Amino acid sequence: MTASIARRIGALSIVATIALAACSSSGASTAPSTAPTTAPTTAASTAPSAAASAGGSAAAMTCVAGSISASGSTAMQPVVDAAGKLYVKECPGATINVQGGGSGTGLTQVATGAVNIGNSDVTAESKLKPDQSSLLVNHIVLKQGWVMVVNSSVTGITNLTTQQASDIWTGKTTNWKDVGGPNQPIVLILRPASSGTRAVFKKVVLNGADESTSATLTEDSNGTVAKAVGTTPGSTSYIGLAYYQANKAGVVPLQLDGVDATPANITNGTYKLSANGNMYTKGAASGLAQAFISFMLGPEVQGTLIPSLYYAPVQ
User: Fold this and answer.
1) C-alpha to C-alpha distance for 203 and 91, rounded to whole angstroms
2) How far apart are CA 125 and CA 6, in angstroms?
3) CATH 3.40.190.10 at 145-268, yes or no
4) Against a cut of 0.70, is the pTM above it?
5) Longest Cα pair distance anywhere in the chain, in angstroms?
6) Dihedral of CA 230/234/238/244: which sign?
7) Mean pLDDT by 10 residues, the chain (315 residues)
8) Fold that domain 3-143+278-308 belongs to in CATH
């Protein structure tokens, strides 16, 4: 291990803590101000790039000067933000601005050229029209999971089956006593329509069914959802594992079908509330965007940073 890499690994815990704290408080950092510096390539494939397909085997980082912006998934934001800070620390000539906004927002912004990278929990094809999604190239950089959580007032429940969770979220079950909990109304905390987290939960747990809209709250990021569940009696929602680790106060995690939400169970496929973490570019990635994506797929991020923030590496 070189001295440079050793210094970067030694700084991981500090960087991760800063990134998690910032994301949990707002769900987004300062909006990027720099438009893409290269012209987009048309008719680009949405298949994973060669580097992504290699399963994180990219070579050592390459420093490229310039400024790029990335927006989208708040579930991915802690690790992308932390990786961006590590890259800039080693490459002072680079600036990487990372913000949230939701997967739909990130995909729309990268498709229109407002940002260089769109981070998304779902595929571009599921959110954009074909004329937009066909211009984007997907770089799969990680695997991630979400955990169902309830407010600490909801006692006696440690696990929900997929059917029980579906009945709760579609409004068939409205009191916790019906699934083994206290005699207490269920309060659902939703995500906005642009949320990739919501899209994954709807696909995996609800089998595409629509959520109940009665007696619900809506929060716009994983961080604000975690805080809302922690302070709202009888409430439930689902948040990324990184956010759960940083926001445990007043929140109780639930198993899904008897399986714990852990990076190991995401990797071995036994925990199903999970999805790829995608970084989209408009056309083939180039310059600083390509260098940063390669860094995301490199051994430092895949082997150390990603596991430290409760994500799973690309296999």
Assistant:
1) 40
2) 40
3) yes
4) yes
5) 59
6) positive
7) 41 39 36 30 34 40 95 96 97 96 96 98 96 97 98 97 98 98 96 92 96 85 92 96 92 98 96 98 98 97 96 91
8) D-Maltodextrin-Binding Protein; domain 2 (3.40.190)
